[in-house]
Design a protein that fits this description.
Elements: E1 5-9, H1 15-25, H2 32-40, E2 44-51, E3 57-66, E4 69-77, H3 86-100, E5 105-111, H4 115-123, E6 127-132, E7 143-149
Parallel strand pairs: 4-5
Antiparallel strand pairs: 1-2, 2-3, 3-4, 5-7, 6-7
């Protein structure tokens, strides 16, 4: 865990802070209603990273665990707080939940051009699994599908 940062389930009141990060992180951001929907879904795991000193949301991850699959739908860290281990902490939290639910693997899509994210995912043991052509509707950019197979521990 990152010193001074705590992780907890996202609440409806977190959505404005999450939206601030979302808009500064993505060219085609999710709408606030999508985050509210994730907070209410039983199988969704919306998690925020909160600065313990300020109470401000500094990152988030949303992943689904459905049957034997774990799919990371969205992850972002405040641009001013990147490269401090927050994204890695969020990813590791996802892995802990997946292992506890005995899910064999986690997968995600990432823009082909998002080299910093791809670098983090590789560092954490994710490997290329496939390609989704024209996946991103704003630019028709391809998405790399990356997956990590979890060992039973």
């Amino acid at each position: 865990m990152v010193k001074g940062i705590s992780l907890r389930r996202m609440r409806h009141g977190d959505v404005p802070g999450v939206m601030d990060i979302e808009k500064r992180s993505f060219t085609s951001p999710w709408g606030a209603h999508l985050f509210h929907e994730e907070v209410d879904r039983d199988f969704s795991h919306p998690v925020v990273a909160v600065d313990e000193e300020t109470g401000r949301v500094v990152g988030y991850i949303i992943f689904w665990v459905v049957y034997d699959e774990c799919h990371i739908l969205n992850i972002a860290v405040d641009p001013e707080r990147r490269r401090q281990g927050i994204g890695e902490a969020l990813m590791r939290h996802c892995e802990e939940v997946a292992r506890a639910k005995r899910v064999p693997y986690i997968y995600l899509e990432v823009r082909e051009s998002n080299r910093p994210a791809i670098s983090l995912y590789k560092k954490l043991g994710y490997r290329f699994f496939g390609l989704r052509r024209g996946y991103y509707t704003d630019t028709k950019e391809d998405a790399l599908v990356m997956a990590k197979f979890l060992r039973r521990e």
